């Protein structure tokens, strides 16, 4: 019996050694952890249960029959994050460069199937040279099987991709279909075609980092939701994110202990909005002052910063926040901010996470760049996302909200549940100056008359009361009591039930 047990231990030791000491040392030399080290940091200590440790590839071409390392370049299994179940796969770059064979792909599919069946998130750690070149089409088939499962899992269980090395070619499309992508600075990249192909086809000279590094994807392309300094930070932040999310679309997000009075008053908010309507202020201050313990998990912070998206907790419950940021482009809506916020709103709605919308928006950004880029369709995404969302929706108007953007930003007309306004809010078709220039065009040569007209228009509309008179604003609230009012609103909505008409799926403008 002892021999049998020793044999198991010996086999396990071989599998755990991955591609061997030399390749592990090379991995470390690049500042990267190994697949197993990453899983250990991601999951609660001792919670990892491995699947398919002994699975080996079946390829006999190109000398592959002589080398069948157990595990085949990917470590898969399940474990817990702060006691809650997650499924995980981590590609092992030390074994065939983490490349995807038929069996490697089948291991990933197995845990994805279990995650969908049992209702727990999938976290994928990507570090791979792509399709296993020796296997040819078998490898492409394996990717196809993974892609299919990414789509079936979408909206059923949260899917998170960590890019911790190469991720190139068609392989990028698996992370692309997951809910969140996080990258590590300087040691990860994603692109459909690499620098060599780019050079050949377009004659552009670009490094892998410039083409698809963490900076590119968090600042320019918006493919990634966050960039971290190293593996350790990326894994720790992923644990933090998991704490905000439900395990699946039929469960509520966890309620965490909180030590922050829901009725906390913040007198400083009474002076957050400057007297000068053209002066910006930092909307993040309001988010932090509403959140339990000032804890905010921001997504896509370096992209379309005119809108802020992320998670907070109120009374221990997860809330998705969307907020215009007056500090950037005056907080206007444009193509990028609409896309960014629409995707976030849809994630929250799919996973029953209530939405808090903080509004100070001058309208949509004008210009040929925006119109030619299709702002009509992209702006419609956010409108569509809010309108279809059935989760609790609480909105606070802090300052201006004009035109179409007023309707888009979780207004009463899109089934907003609680729509509050600060006394400083203005709800209008447009700013007073623009309105007067259209209404009184014949008087434009008479500055005094025009000034009076502007004042008249402001007196009528530069306040929240016209909207409140019509019931479009439920209540005008004191800024200092925002946390209390918002907390009570969400508490009142815990039993909300709302369903859309049956359909196969909607046809959101893409
Ligand atoms: C088999 C691979 C491999 C692959 C790397 N290796 N990629 N083995 N198939 N795709 C092996 C190497 O032979 C090497 O083995 C080990 O992994 C480490 O690779 P190195 O090249 O030494 O590492 P490094 O210098 O860090 O370069 C990493 C790399 C490079 C940039 C990823 O390996 C590379 O260019 N690989 C090929 C990438 C590629 O063209 N993939 C196919 C893309 S098409 P030893 O034994 O020496 O350690 C694709 C389509 C997917 O992926 C489509 C989905 C629908």
From TrEMBL:
Record bears the keyword Transmembrane helix: no
Keywords: Ligase
Primary enzyme class: ligase
Keyword Ligase in annotation: yes
Gene Ontology MF terms: ligase activity
Residues covered by the CoA carboxyltransferase C-terminal domain: 264-504
Enzyme Commission identifier(s): 6.-.-.-
SUPFAM superfamilies the record matches: ClpP/crotonase (SSF52096)
Domain spans labelled CoA carboxyltransferase N-terminal: 1-257
Annotated InterPro entries: AccD/PCCB, AcCoA_carboxyl_beta, ClpP/crotonase-like_dom_sf, COA_CT_C, COA_CT_N
Protein's name in the database: Acyl-CoA carboxylase subunit beta
Protein species of origin: Tabrizicola soli
């Amino acid at each position: 019996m002892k021999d049998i047990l020793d044999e198991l231990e010996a086999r396990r030791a071989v599998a755990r050694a991955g591609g061997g000491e030399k390749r592990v040392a090379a991995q470390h030399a690049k500042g990267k952890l190994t697949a197993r080290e990453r899983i250990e940091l991601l999951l609660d200590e001792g919670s990892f249960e491995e699947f398919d440790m002994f699975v080996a590839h079946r390829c006999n071409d190109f000398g592959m029959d002589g080398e069948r390392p157990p595990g085949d370049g990917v470590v898969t299994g399940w474990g817990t994050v702060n006691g809650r179940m997650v499924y995980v796969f981590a590609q092992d770059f030390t074994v065939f460069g983490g490349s995807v064979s038929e069996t490697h792909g089948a291991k990933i599919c197995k845990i994805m199937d279990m995650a969908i069946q049992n209702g727990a998130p999938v976290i994928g750690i990507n570090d791979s040279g792509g399709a296993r070149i020796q296997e040819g089409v078998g490898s492409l088939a394996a990717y196809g099987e993974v892609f299919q499962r990414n789509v079936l899992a979408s909206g059923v269980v949260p899917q998170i991709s960590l890019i911790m090395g190469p991720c190139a070619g068609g392989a990028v499309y698996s992370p692309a279909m997951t809910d969140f992508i996080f990258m590590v600075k300087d040691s990860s990249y994603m692109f459909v075609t690499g620098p060599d192909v780019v050079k050949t086809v377009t004659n552009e000279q670009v490094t892998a980092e410039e083409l698809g590094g963490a900076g590119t994807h968090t600042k320019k392309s918006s493919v990634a939701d966050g960039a971290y300094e190293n593996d350790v930070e990326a894994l720790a932040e992923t644990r933090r994110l998991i704490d905000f999310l439900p395990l699946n679309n039929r469960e509520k997000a966890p309620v965490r202990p909180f030590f922050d009075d829901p009725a906390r008053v913040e007198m400083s908010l009474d002076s957050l909005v400057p007297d000068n309507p053209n002066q910006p202020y930092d909307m993040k201050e309001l988010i932090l002052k509403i959140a339990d313990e000032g804890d905010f998990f921001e997504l896509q912070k370096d992209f379309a910063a005119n809108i802020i998206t992320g998670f907070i907790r109120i009374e221990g419950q997860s809330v998705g926040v969307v907020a215009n940021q007056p500090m950037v482009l005056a907080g206007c809506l444009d193509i990028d901010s609409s896309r960014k916020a629409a995707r976030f709103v849809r994630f929250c709605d799919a996973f029953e996470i209530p939405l808090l919308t903080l509004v100070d928006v001058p309208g949509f950004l004008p210009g040929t760049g925006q119109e030619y880029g299709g702002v009509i369709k992209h702006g419609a995404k956010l409108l569509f996302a809010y309108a279809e969302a059935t989760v609790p929706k609480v909105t606070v108007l802090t300052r201006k909200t004009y035109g179409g953007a007023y309707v888009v930003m979780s207004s009463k007309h899109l089934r907003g549940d609680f729509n509050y306004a600060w006394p400083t809010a203005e709800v209008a078709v447009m700013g007073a100056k623009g309105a007067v220039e259209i209404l009184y065009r014949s008087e434009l040569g008479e500055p005094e008359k025009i000034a009076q007209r502007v004042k008249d228009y402001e007196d009528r509309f530069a306040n929240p009361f016209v909207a409140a008179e019509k019931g479009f604003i439920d209540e005008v609230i004191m800024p200092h009591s925002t946390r209390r009012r918002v907390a009570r609103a969400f508490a009142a909505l815990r039993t909300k039930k709302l369903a859309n008409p049956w359909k196969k799926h909607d046809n959101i403008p893409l």
